[in-house]
Amino acid sequence: MFKFSQNIHNNSMSTRIIALIIGLIINAMGNGFTIVSNFGSGIWTAAAVNIHNITGFQVGILIFCFGILNTITNQFLIQHLDIVRLIEEIVYISFFSYMVNWFTNLFTSWELNQWSPILRIPMSIMGVTLFCIAISLYQRANLFMHPNDDTTNILRFKYMHGSAIFSQLTDMLPPIVIIIICFFITGKVYSVNVGTIYSIIFNGMLIATADKYVWKSLIHNFKPSENISN
């Protein structure tokens, strides 16, 4: 249990639910743009693609497995068993996976994947920027979120004194190690491109900036069981 030193009143539940829904949609949309652009995606997705090229397992299944591992990791990070939190994160993964597929199919039907690289590179960067804004929204709403984003949220406030940048960089270390190991096995790196590098460098900065300038009245809402030190 960690203690938040300031006396802050949470946003209303309706506001938090709206932020969650908007964040979920924007996140799925952003991931759809990065996938269709084929110029790099988030580092965890890239790690899944590299494992896929060794094992043959479907990328979607690998991403889901990463989510389950993140969910279990979060239970250790908060230092107590929280069944509700675990179930919420699994529910989020299910909806998120469906919506990413929906947006990806929609953008493919619009033939965005056929655009020239001059247009697809900024599309990938825009997609990363969108899902960083989305992460900021539903992390602040703090109802349901992707387990990986909950990991960075816990790292940020429990272990890293509120730093979005350091928490994001720490969270990226495991998938980077996975990609390096896969490279030594295959001699190739897959799904790492402009968008991935942009994500590695700017994820934390983009989330921290969105915290300040996107929906300013939406604060970091903490659950009654959370005592987070500033």
Q: What this model shows, in words?
A:
It is a single chain. The chain is mostly helical. It has one domain (13-213). The protein has 8 helices and no strands. It starts with 12 loop residues before the first helix and ends in a 17-residue tail after the last helix.
A few lines on this structure:
By secondary structure, this protein is an all-alpha fold. It has helices at residues 13-37, 43-55, 59-77, 83-109, 117-141, 147-159, 164-186, 194-213.
Salient structural properties:
230 residues; mainly alpha; globular; disordered N terminus
Write the layout of secondary structure elements.
Layout lengths: L12 H25 L5 H13 L3 H19 L5 H27 L7 H25 L5 H13 L4 H23 L7 H20 L17
Structural class: mainly alpha
What percent of the residues sit in helical stretches (DSSP H or I)?
over 70%
Shape: globular
Please indicate the percent range of residues in DSSP E strands (runs of 2 or more): under 5%
Rg: 17 Å
Mean of residue pLDDT values? 87
Number of domains: 1
User: Which sequence of SSEs, written as H and E, runs from N to C?
Assistant: HHHHHHHH
Largest sheet: none
Count of DSSP E strands? 0
Distance between the termini: 13 Å
Low-confidence stretches: 1-7
Tally of individual helices: 8
